[in-house]
Amino acid sequence: MKLVTVLMLTALPLYCYAGIGCDLLDDMISTTIDPDVDVTEYINNLKDFLPGEETEKAYTFMKECFLHQSEETLEKCAKTQQAIYSSFWCARH
Q1: Where is the secretion signal located (predicted)?
Q2: DSSP-derived 3-state class of residue 85
């Protein structure tokens, strides 16, 4: 689970540096971390970005992993996300 989080958050500076999709990516990550968003709602929000059934299964698995995390872990993910957005690379966008 932590590896998935690290890989997902590592990609943020690249998207922000390119200046494309920051808002979409921010929304996607926020709903991934949010424990109040269930799997069905999460997948429905991302339907336009899921090219196939295998990708949908992977995102469903990822959301379920986040739903099984403690509040402390979710707070740390949110703090990491904000640290990346406040970084040198994302500050320009």
Answers
A1: 1-18
A2: helix
Which residue is it, tokens 């999709």? 21
- For 28, other C-beta atoms within 10 Å of its C-beta total 17
Q: Which helix (H) or strand (E) holds 24?
A: helix 22-33
- Dist. CA 28–CA 46, nearest whole Å: 8
pTM: 0.68
pLDDT at 10 over 70: no
Q: pLDDT tens digits, residue range 50-85?
A: 888 999 999 999 999 999 999 999 999 888 888 877
Q: Which amino acid is at 49?
A: F
d(CA 1, CA 35): 15
- Say which residues have a Cβ less than 8 Å from residue 35's Cβ, sequence separation at least 6: 66, 67, 71, 74
